[in-house]
Amino acid sequence: MLKTVKFGGSSLASAEQFRKVKAIIERDAARRYAVVSAPGKRFSGDDKITDLLYRCQALRASGKPFDAEFRKIADRFTGIRDGLGLDLCIEAELDEIRSRIDAGASADYAASRGEYLNAKLLAAYLGFPFLDATECIRFRDDGTFDADATALRANVLTAHACAVIPGFYGRTRAGNIRTFSRGGSDITGAIVANLSESDVYENWTDVSGFLMADPKIVPDARVIETVTYSELRELSYMGATVLHEDSIFPVRKARIPIHVLNTNDPEAKGTMIVPDSMATDKEHARALTGIAGRRGYTVLTLTKDNLHNDLGYAYRLMGILARNGISAERMPSGIDTISLVVDDKRLTGRMDQLYHDVMAECAPDTIEIASCIALIACVGIGMVRNPGVAAKLFTALANAEVNARLIDQDSNEMNIIVGVEQRDFERAVEAIYRAFA
Ligand code: ASP
Prior knowledge:
Layout: E1 3-7, H1 15-27, E2 31-36, H2 49-61, H3 67-84, H4 91-102, H5 107-126, E3 138-139, H6 147-151, H7 154-158, E4 163-166, E5 169-172, E6 177-179, H8 185-195, E7 200-205, E8 226-228, H9 229-237, H10 248-253, E9 258-262, E10 271-274, H11 281-285, E11 290-303, H12 313-323, E12 337-343, H13 344-347, H14 351-362, E13 366-379, H15 389-399, E14 404-409, E15 415-421, H16 425-436
Helix pairs in contact: 1-3, 2-3, 2-5, 3-5, 4-5, 12-14, 15-16
């Protein structure tokens, strides 16, 4: 058994957190590759090291002094080191980072140093070798991740029986540091799990797993024990995120499960994210796995007599959307109607042109525009096998006096989308949760 473990910023924010991480790693000899984030917040209102590093670089770029910000960074790292009683000199590294930022280093370089130094500290504390991400994570010159060049570096990683690797960054062929988008250490963890052919990718955070519904709406929402990659994708798309979205792909392809665990409660079961084919009868017997939703949609409903016989109607409509740079989230249709569900962010500044083009090229009999709509995704691979899911769902909404403005089901029958008025959003989520939990 081989495990890649990734610890997030809050898991490594202080010496006390480092102690928890060490205990976790030492409890299981399979935990051989550890990927780390930069120190995160210790308390609300605290600074994240990555934010401070970006700030130093931005201050320098605008010709302002950055000493005060840099001091906070240096103090945090030396504080962790001293708190752990480590005999590791990081002052020279800090000086070098400082002078490179002063000499105009890139934002990517500056931001990457949080992970770099934290990995150095954890490696020393565990007695593991430090393996720099630049040794195996490769980017193209345009800043995109180069999976092929990275795959060729697998042997550099596996030459080490165990290692601590900084997350979030890698380098281009020319040697420039590049980072993933924010939260990208999750992606590094997934890549390392894939390169090392780990059996499990453990992602240690500060929550005890993936919850069945947003705890801001349902404070007692249950943790989902097992979720498939497909279910997770549907839920994350609607805003329920624990992991960076792009961290799914490297492990999903290699059929490696992700185990989301809590550094502050290591005994909690957490959530296992598994390939669809690894779902057991238990998951298939479950009518609903999770609920996620978002506000801020507009629904445009076009009505035209005999629309279904008008060959190419949907095609023309899609052409208009593409030309205007708008994508429709969903397109439920009836015999004489087509609805477009569009994220408001995509409509800003484009609505008038869209309306004009639709009227000119599609000539609907009527066009109705409903704004302030929230979408709720009710997701579960078991839906298809369990009769009565929809009945239960809509009974719950009716009992909560919520009117479903729109209903759509994916063709894979894993996701029922309900559109409701924004003011009913919370009530609807809560009602659905109570009906299925
Ligand atoms: N430290 C980086 C960030 O704050 C990357 C990460 O933590 O995953 O976004």
